[in-house]
Write a structure and sequence with these properties.
Elements: H1 5-34, E1 36-37, E2 52-58, E3 64-70, E4 78-83, E5 87-88, H2 90-93, H3 98-101, E6 105-110, H4 124-141, E7 147-152, H5 154-163, E8 170-174, H6 180-187, H7 193-196, H8 203-206, E9 214-219, H9 227-231, E10 242-246, H10 258-268
Parallel strand pairs: 1-5, 4-6, 4-7, 7-8, 8-9, 9-10
Antiparallel strand pairs: 2-3, 3-6
Helix pairs in contact: 4-5
Length: about 270
């Protein structure tokens, strides 16, 4: 049968057009997938079960940084700067505060731009600067040997970047990633996500610059950030760092595993 060049060219053009349209959609809608924020009104009243202080900082004349400082009724050991995941806002992550407050640590959480009461447009630079503002507040009250930097999911890269710039007691990363673009590449493997990801956070770049000991936790059944992706960070660890594997652990359920809770408790003690 003779090769039909015109028909092949026609279908090639159609496939290329589809590829291009999907690529454009991915580029312009990526913030929707990466940053699933739930904004709140400025006058919203939080209803947390544990005591807290609310702090609002004017980042610019039009942008606000919202911070919740969960208090502890135990002898004060220090503070945990908590950088949460990509869903909703602080209200969703407040349930994790007792893991630290019960050990004598205050927990200070920030909402990223567009999350909760924080305003502004997300960029990597702004995420890092918001984190820096939180650290400066903590550094004014606590010594660096009393500050723990904690990141969860998308917040692990933000925590790692901050820790690469400042001194602290310890860094804890729950479900970290090599880079945001590498996570996106898993879902869109036929697209050049390293070039297409507009807010790209490069954990691999920050990790070797961190002076404090780093503990990373990752489950082998994580469907969001694959274990393979996170394990690419292992060769970048310095002596004293650790990568704790949770067999069967997923992306949002590591607290169900005794090894996770026992290790967190030992790190805090």
């Amino acid at each position: 049968m003779a090769f039909n060049w015109k028909k092949t060219k026609k279908w090639g053009t159609i496939l290329l057009l589809i590829y291009g349209i999907i690529g454009i959609l991915i580029y312009y809608l990526q913030d929707y997938f990466l940053f699933q924020a739930t904004p709140l009104r400025r006058d919203h009243q939080y209803n947390f079960s544990q005591p807290y202080r609310e702090v609002n900082l004017d980042y610019t004349s039009k942008e606000n940084l919202n911070i919740i400082q969960f208090e502890t009724d135990k002898p004060l050991r220090g503070v945990v700067l908590y950088f949460h995941g990509n869903r909703k806002n602080i209200s969703w992550y407040a349930r994790f505060a007792p893991m630290f407050t019960e050990q004598g640590y205050e927990v200070w959480m920030i909402d990223y731009p567009g999350y909760g009461k924080s305003t502004g447009k997300i960029t990597a630079e702004k995420l890092f600067d918001y984190a820096s503002q939180l650290y400066k507040l903590a550094d004014n009250r606590f010594g660096t040997d009393s500050i723990i930097i904690f990141g969860k999911s998308i917040g692990t890269g933000i925590a790692a970047e901050l820790a690469s710039q400042v001194n602290c007691k310890r860094v804890i990363l729950e479900t970290p990633y090599y880079s945001l673009s590498s996570v996106a590449s898993r879902f869109f493997p036929i697209y050049p996500m390293e070039q297409m990801t507009r807010v790209n956070i490069l954990t691999w770049e920050y990790l070797p610059l961190i002076k404090a000991p780093v503990s990373m936790f990752h489950g082998t059944s994580d469907k969001v950030i694959s274990y393979r992706n996170a394990s690419r960070l292992i060769p970048l660890m310095k002596p004293g760092d650790e990568f704790i594997t949770i067999p069967g652990g997923g992306h949002s359920n590591l607290r169900k595993y005794p090894v996770f809770n026992q290790k967190i408790d030992s790190l805090l003690r």
